[in-house]
Design brief:
Layout: H1 6-12, E1 22-25, H2 31-40, E2 48-51, E3 73-79, H3 89-107, E4 112-114, E5 118-121, E6 124-136, E7 139-149, H4 169-173, H5 179-198, H6 202-213, E8 219-224, E9 227-236, E10 242-245, E11 251-254, E12 257-260, E13 268-269, E14 273-278
Parallel strand pairs: 1-2, 6-14
Antiparallel strand pairs: 2-3, 3-7, 4-5, 5-6, 6-7, 8-9, 8-12, 9-10, 10-11, 12-13
The protein binds biotin.
Biotin binds at residues 30-32, 54, 57-60, 63, 65, 74-76, 118, 128-130, 146-148.
């Protein structure tokens, strides 16, 4: 078994921005909380926080994120893109694409992105993203990309109600995956996609997102701000909004909400948490 240490990861990385400094902890309350604290105190773009276990791993909407030791990956990355807050959802799409690519490279499985940022394999959730931002005067000061991946967790560790909706790579493949290799691939992919984003290649990111989502052309139901919108998915725009073609022929842009396909139970997903935003 490969050692899960910053040195083991750093030795493998050929990145420009991400992972120059990796802070690894045996346990933390939450890697996002720690990375947010670091960013507030001047932490550099590309610094990475990893924990073997989280005591209060956070999912969206205040939900807990199951974070047992020794099996999964809990990773947070500090970014400081010089962009407007209104463009920040693109960074979330970028991180979902990077996570999907790393999953595909390492496992050979085909993951699907569920809008905006869940990763599914065989219709079960294998990874989730919680991205938090601080902005000032309409500009992004920093974003913390929080990525949780169920790598080698066995289903016995899941509470009963999650057994039909969650999975891990080990569960799907039948063998263990090296967390060192997965983390290296993940940081490599985030680095590559973030550079593309910084070069202005948002269009390429959006196309990849659409390919991974397999949603284009599908009929969906959205619950967004107390409104239910039914329509066919046309794609995603450069702000990360989902574009729907409504039955009356109008086009609807949905920035946050709760998407489901017929037969699926809905799940509320705001795409980026403005944890602290001074305008
Ligand atoms: C979700 O699907 O609700 C998002 C889950 C995000 C979990 C990750 S694990 C690493 C980082 N630290 C946290 O406390 N949460 C994110």
């Amino acid at each position: 078994m490969k050692t899960f240490s910053p040195r083991a990861i750093e030795n493998r990385l050929r990145t420009q921005i991400i992972g120059k400094k990796i802070h690894m902890f045996s346990e933390l309350d939450s890697t996002n909380s720690e990375a947010y604290r670091m960013a507030r105190e001047g932490g550099d773009e590309g610094e990475v926080v990893v924990a073997d276990r989280q005591l209060r791993g956070r999912g969206r909407l205040g939900r807990p994120w199951l974070s047992p030791p020794g099996v999964n990956l809990y990773v947070s990355i500090i970014l400081r893109p010089p962009i407007l807050v209104s463009n920040a959802p693109l960074v979330t799409l970028m991180s979902a694409v990077a996570t999907a690519k790393a999953t595909k490279v390492i496992s050979g499985l085909q993951p699907r992105i569920k809008w905006p940022n869940d990763l599914l394999i065989n219709n079960k959730k294998v990874a989730g993203l919680l991205n938090e931002m601080r902005g000032k005067a309409g500009k992004v000061e920093f974003i913390v990309l929080g990525i949780g991946i169920n790598v080698n967790m066995t289903m016995g560790l899941l509470p009963e109600e999650m057994k039909f909706t969650a999975t891990s790579l080990k569960e799907e493949l039948g063998y263990d995956i090296s967390r060192v290799e997965f983390l290296s691939a993940l940081l490599q992919e985030v680095d590559r996609e973030y550079q593309a984003f910084s070069r202005g290649e948002a269009g390429r990111i959006l196309r990849q997102w659409e390919e991974f989502s397999q949603m284009v052309g599908k009929l969906v139901e959205m619950r967004s701000f107390n409104e239910v919108i039914r329509g066919r998915v046309k794609g995603i725009d450069s702000n990360g909004s989902l574009l729907l073609s409504a039955p009356d022929g109008s086009e609807r842009r949905v920035i946050a909400g709760d998407i489901s396909q017929p037969g699926e139970s809905p799940d509320m997903k705001p795409e980026l948490d403005a944890k602290s935003f001074d305008s």
